[in-house]
Amino acid sequence: MGEKQSYQHVVHTFGPLYNADSKILILGSMPSPASREVGFYYGHPRNRFWKVLAELFGMPLPECIEEKKALALSHRIALWDTIEECDIIGASDSSVKNVVPTEIPSLLAETNVERILCNGALSKKIYDKYQLERTGIPALQMPSTSPANAAWSLARLVEEWGKVLR
After folding, report:
1. Residue range 8-158 in CATH 3.40.50.2300
2. C-alpha dihedral (1, 88, 149, 66), degrees to nearest 10
3. Torsion angle of the four alpha carbons 27, 33, 34, 40, in this order, in degrees rounded to the nearest 10
4. What residue ranges do the domains of the chain occupy?
5. Burial of 22 (C-beta count, 10 Å sphere; 0-12/13-18/19+)
């Protein structure tokens, strides 16, 4: 428990989720170790992202990746991250360095995305630094659904995310 973790070079291991009908792009920063292990977005069991979406849209909580994809796509939501690769300690946002950004303009060219939401502060910081000038679409920073954001209850997250997703 007391051993010090070191930097690891991490590469995004799965692609964006979208289709031509996608109108809202939700960007995380980089998949957590748990998400990389399951090979899909917001894979940590305590991340509240899927609970927030299910609650907002009055849907059952998706159990598997196919159900998660269906929930997002049926509400015209695309998912991706702002970081393609970086050096990071565990899942610590504050440790991220040597960022290679994702190619968001190419996704935008294949969709009808009108609004971009960043799930947390790091995602917004990376988007603004590497993407905003290229996309011309300002992103809105949303409160992180990560379990590390313990100050936000599920009810508060649903209320805040609901202001822009409903």
Report:
1. no
2. -100
3. 40
4. 8-158
5. buried
Please report which confidence band the pLDDT of residue 90 belongs to, taking 50, 70 and 90 as the band edges.
Answer: confident
Strands of the chain (E only): list them.
Answer: 8-11, 24-28, 77-81, 83-88, 97-101, 115-119, 139-142
The Cα 156–Cα 138 span in angstroms is: 24
DSSP 8-state symbol, 31: -
Report the candidate in 27, 25, 28, 26 with the shortest Cα–Cα distance to residue 113. 25
- CA atoms of 66 and 70, how far apart (whole Å): 6
1-18 tens-digit pLDDT:
545 789 999 999 999 999
pLDDT digits (tens, 9 = 90+) for 56-89: 999 999 999 999 999 999 999 999 999 999 999 9
Exposed, middle or buried, 11 (CB in 10 Å: 0-12/13-18/19+)? exposed
Taking every pair of Cα atoms in the chain, the longest distance, rounded to a whole number of angstroms, is: 48
Count Cα atoms within 13 angstroms, Cβ side, for 8: 13
Whole-model pTM?
A: 0.95
Q: Which two tokens stand for residue 156?
A: 């508060």
